[in-house]
Amino acid sequence: MSSSHSRGIAYGLAASVLWGSTYVVARYLVEVRELDPYYTAAVRFSFGALFALLYVLLTQGYKRTMAARRATAQLIALG
Description:
By secondary structure, this protein is mainly alpha-helical. The chain has 4 helices and no strands. It is flat and about 45 Å long. The mean pLDDT is about 90.
């Protein structure tokens, strides 16, 4: 088995665990901890956006990421 094949399997398993555990964690937070479902969704998406931004900054660099901020602002405005 090649290294890229093993890495692909590992990424797939990680994605399955993350996506599969989302429902369980959200249900726990809403039913047991009695948090608002909209609050839990907002926190979840905020963490996702933060990790996505960190990934882009680490892979593309600060200058290149900030150079695209005008296009990013336009995309955010579109929704």
